Amino acid sequence: MDSIHLIGYFGALIVGLVLGLIGGGGSILTVPLLVYLLAYNPIVATAYSLFVVGVTSLVGTYQKYKKGLVDFEIGLAFSFPSFLAVYLSRRFLVPNIPEILLTFGNFQLTKDITIMVFFAFIMLFAAISMIKSKKNLKPGTEKQAYYKTFLQGITIGAITGLIGAGGGFLYVPALVLWANIPMKKAVGTSLIIVAINSLIGFLGDVQTLDIEWAFLLAFTTISVLGILIGGYFSKFVSAKKLKKSFGYFVLIMAAYIIYRELL
Description:
single chain, mainly alpha, 10 helices, globular, transmembrane
């Protein structure tokens, strides 16, 4: 095993630890880790990220379920349109995006650059979501019509499919504001949505990519180990403070990706 893969496995442990400590956000590190440290192209990196996110979210779902913090009925209602969008985007949209989208003089806007820059902007939104206090976020007064839930699921699912991250930071406010469930249960419920979306989205990639299973399974196993360790230590640290600090770190990473890809 070379030093690059060792660094990658250490990164996988960090991803799991963050997920275990703050309940989300760690998966957003997976794509930059695979692209910039392990030199995978963004298409493969986002595919691998979906698998890692899906498996670790399943573990997180079980942890939350034991605490009574998962609403499966609402989670599955959101999941159906989402996983359709994730699967279709990974199976048909991503493979058919042109390799070169635009040319400006000597600069070419390639498929890989576009995906990474879009990913960086989603990271910016995620960072702001982690930094801002959500204590004023309260359940709505009535449940929204299902067609609105369907449209939200389609939109978030398409984003998940493109960037290979779970989209939990998008689902949590949607579940609180429109599904009328408390914040803690919204976090737990978002995990089952993310798990279903990510794993079904990955099935679309299995049909179009050659998967390096030995590495992917090892990386995922270490991430799961990290989430278990992080879940244990979360009893002794302030998740709120950690989440805000991690949000600033993600903000810096997003700025770095935009700088590296465009400048």
